[in-house]
Design a protein that fits this description.
Elements lengths: L4 H16 L3 E2 L3 E3 L5 E3 L10 E3 L3 E6 L9 E3 L1 E4 L17 H5 L3 E9 L3 E7 L12 E4 L7 E5 L2 E6 L6 E7 L3 E7 L2 E3 L5 E7 L1 E9 L5 H5 L10 E3 L3 E2 L10 E4 L2 E4 L6 E2 L6 E4 L3 E4 L2 E2 L6 E10 L7 E2 L5 E2 L13 E5 L5 E11 L6 E5 L4 E6 L2 E3 L9 E2 L5 E9 L4 E2 L5 E10 L6 E2 L7 E14 L13 E3 L13 E20 L3 E5 L1 E16 L10 E4 L20 E4 L1 E3 L2 E3 L24 E3 L1
Parallel strand pairs: 3-4, 8-17, 18-20, 19-21, 20-23, 21-24, 22-25, 23-26, 24-26, 25-29, 26-30, 29-31, 30-32, 30-33, 32-35, 33-35, 34-36, 35-37, 36-38, 37-39, 38-40, 39-41, 40-42, 41-43, 42-44, 43-45, 43-46, 45-48
Antiparallel strand pairs: 1-2, 2-8, 5-6, 5-9, 7-8, 9-12, 10-13, 11-12, 13-17, 14-15, 14-16, 27-28, 46-47
Bound molecules: 2-acetamido-2-deoxy-beta-D-glucopyranose (4 copies).
Length: 601
Amino acid sequence: MFVSLFSILFYLAYLFNRVNGLPIISNNLHTWWHNNIEYNDNSPVRDSSVRASNIYSVQVATTDLHQNNLYDSFTYMSIPRGGRQKWEYDSSDGAEFAEKTKLTMSWSTFQYLTDVWVIVKLNNSMSTIDSIDHVTIRPITLNFKKELVDSRTIRISVPYRAAGYRFSVEFKKQLFTTYHTNYGPSENTGGQAIHTEPRQALLIFAESIVTGDQIDEYIPNPDIHYNNIYYVPQGEVKNLNIIKETVAYFEPGIYYMPWNYHAIFPTNVHWIYLAPGAYVKGAFQFQSTDNIKVTGFGVLSGEKYVYEADVANNYHHSINNQCWATCVKMLRFTSDYGKEQYLQLHGITISEPPYHSFVVYGDDQTFHMSVSSYHQVGSWYWQTDGLEIYRGSSLANTFFHSNDDVLKIYHSDVIVRNIVVWKNENGPVIQWGWSPRTINNVTVDQIDIIHNRIWWSDIKHNTCIINSATHYDDTESTNTADPNQLIEDLIISNIRSEGMNSCAMRIYALSSIQSITIKNLWIEQWNQLDKSSQISIFKAYEDKNGNQVTIGNQSNDKKGLALINYTVGTTKITKVANNWQDTSVGRLYFDANLWDSWDAY
Ligand SMILES: *[C@@H]1O[C@H](CO)[C@@H](O)[C@H](O)[C@H]1NC(C)=O
Ligand SMILES: *[C@@H]1O[C@H](CO)[C@@H](O)[C@H](O)[C@H]1NC(C)=O
Ligand SMILES: *[C@@H]1O[C@H](CO)[C@@H](O)[C@H](O)[C@H]1NC(C)=O
Ligand SMILES: *[C@@H]1O[C@H](CO)[C@@H](O)[C@H](O)[C@H]1NC(C)=O
């Protein structure tokens, strides 16, 4: 085979970078590596180390599969509670099942501009792969070409796409099923099957290399921001509250904040850049109310914080009932009343959030954002929500592993598109409830739920794929509605949920409704729970004076709720086919008095 001098030089440069933890860069492919790594799946790693997957290793190659052209792509791993025991508490934190079942989540991110092969090797201690048919890529609709290389190695052909791809690679011998038993979720096959998923997750995030005009938009340019970039020194970080610059730049390397500290940036800081290969253990809080950015393909990890690390309790576990205002969030923003503010969130991976990962305080009507190529992994605890998408905002091309409400569509003029979700048991995928709201013009499109372990032993009001939960003040009350608020023109389309599922939708209307359209909701199959616990619910609540919310509007001919091409397996659910009932495959148990307010066709 002809090997050019250039490729030999390039390979030498590659080896040098590989050894020195620098990004490995060719024109069409960026991968990276870390120096201080620990292959450890059961205890916290040293502050100065990064946990590497002890199960998978990943390489990427452009077209030529010659050994010299395979680039190592660092494969990170998250484990429940970062390998700690419960720390100064013994109440439930949501990670019990994941710990008991020894779940791990590995991931590898690279950037590319051309079609590539992704090579995945299993550690020698893992069972061999009998056939390439025992390997599943999810979402299954991606249909990537895959080949067996040897008994522990496969390769996957990943085409270039500007929007990138975020997918899971799954090996048959690592799948396990969760069952519902009298003692809670369990691997004990005596119960009813809830969901099947890999014990050792592997996610691949193939993201575009930033090019053209995007370079200055997403990567701080020293020529433009001269003297205004603070290059954070590697190692321990605890001085960020007083820096003078406008940009905090994390170059490739490992950074760690103390467990009882998070960065509260002064108002002058409005851009955080995490270079590919930067790994930051800590959390960020902005005080700037100007336009802000969080960009780059580095990692922000909450692994050092305890579950519900409460600033009001010196970062120990919260001792209050709830700590919405005072627990550490991975990303926290401040918005001024009446002052328009725009956040650009591009790239970054948030791992092991100890609580809500993203919250805005102040005026949520003037805060807008554009989020893309964002990843959330290792969401073992309760309350590890996805994102609240503020008014006039967009969210696209993103992956969420989440153990609570994932996509919170509480505001108008929002577009959410092309999202991959891996769902743990708590909370729904799409949420617009918890209080009465006025919302219009929301599009949620192309949501691929690759795993859905949503489960509860009773009929929860804050669950299912689509949900408008009852009022947070009094979740049992039916008179918490406000009929004067109106939710209008919500289009939720192309929602696919792979594997076994518990339930489709629970809508407790706390506001009046016009034109909510759910189109092409596909559920691969129901799990084995009783039909009565899989019901979809639709109820119209009242206010304190007994006034009920209105569903639809006869004067302008706007309907209430339309289910268009709702499909379970291969069965399309329609009113006419009479297969919608709770005891039938549609599992709809909508209030009888709403019969004229919804349709399924
Ligand atoms: C492979 O797995 C073994 C057993 O868990 C572990 O000791 C070893 O560190 C792993 N090797 C790598 C490279 O991950
Ligand atoms: C609906 O929201 C989108 C996204 O913010 C926006 O571009 C569009 O102008 C809005 N449509 C109307 C009629 O306001
Ligand atoms: C209806 O949904 C099924 C299952 O997702 C899909 O295959 C089919 O294309 C959809 N039909 C239309 C007309 O969109
Ligand atoms: C119902 O439609 C009529 C006619 O367009 C409109 O005047 C009225 O405000 C609508 N009611 C609500 C609650 O939106």
